């Protein structure tokens, strides 16, 4: 239930960010046409876009919607594919942990730097990296736990949707 609520909040935030970006870019174009450019709006749209990308990537990971090339692993038996996906997930978690640490360092270095003409700290831009990595790591761990709990069903994996997951996605 908590994960469903988190998914709804995440979706609402992403929709709000996208709507705000569209409004900012449209307003900037309109004001530029009338000779009164909104210089800060492009910077703000870029800032919101990086955060939107992080929310979108997390949602895609959680719902197993990322594009993937599975031509080699598709022919592996379920058990071997399951263990391969768990091993790859561990590597990805290590990479996300490294990016989180380095992203925090970069954010702290950029707190005093100003972002374009907006006047806000560039730290807000770079903070999307560690925040996004934490969100991705949480989504990945949730997928790993679900796959582990259902490992005996012969179809649930970490990254690939099972037939029942496809049917559930179609219903929503």
Low-confidence stretches: none
User: What is the 3D form?
Assistant: elongated
Question: Mind describing the biggest β-sheet?
Answer: none
What share of the residues does DSSP label as strand, in percent?
A: under 5%
User: Into which percent range does the helicity of residues fall?
Assistant: over 70%
As a whole number of angstroms, the C-alpha radius of gyration is: 20 Å
Q: What is the average per-residue confidence, as pLDDT, rounded to a whole number?
A: 89
Q: What pattern of helices and strands is seen along the backbone?
A: HHHHHH
Amino-to-carboxy terminus distance:
16 Å
Number of helical regions: 6
How would you characterize this protein structure?
The chain has six helices and no strands. It is mainly α and 172 residues long. Helix 1 packs antiparallel against helix 2 (39-62), helix 2 (39-62) packs parallel to helix 5 and helix 3 packs antiparallel against helix 5. It is elongated, with a radius of gyration of 20 Å. The relative contact order is 0.12.
């Amino acid at each position: 239930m908590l994960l469903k609520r988190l998914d709804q909040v995440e979706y609402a935030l992403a929709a709000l960010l996208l709507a705000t970006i569209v409004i900012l870019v449209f307003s900037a174009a309109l004001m530029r046409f009338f000779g009164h450019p909104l210089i800060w709006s492009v910077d703000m749209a870029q800032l919101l876009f990086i955060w939107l990308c992080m929310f979108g990537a997390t949602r895609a990971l959680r719902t197993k919607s990322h594009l993937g090339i599975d031509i080699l692993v598709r022919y592996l038996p379920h058990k071997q594919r399951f263990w391969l996906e768990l091993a790859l997930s561990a590597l990805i978690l290590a990479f996300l942990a490294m990016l989180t640490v380095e992203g925090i360092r970069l954010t702290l270095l950029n707190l005093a730097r100003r972002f374009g003409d907006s006047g806000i700290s560039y730290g807000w831009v770079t903070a999307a990296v560690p925040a996004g990595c934490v969100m991705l790591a949480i989504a990945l761990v949730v997928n790993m736990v679900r796959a582990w709990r259902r490992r005996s069903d012969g179809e649930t994996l970490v990254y690939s949707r099972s037939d029942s997951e496809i049917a559930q996605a179609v219903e929503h």
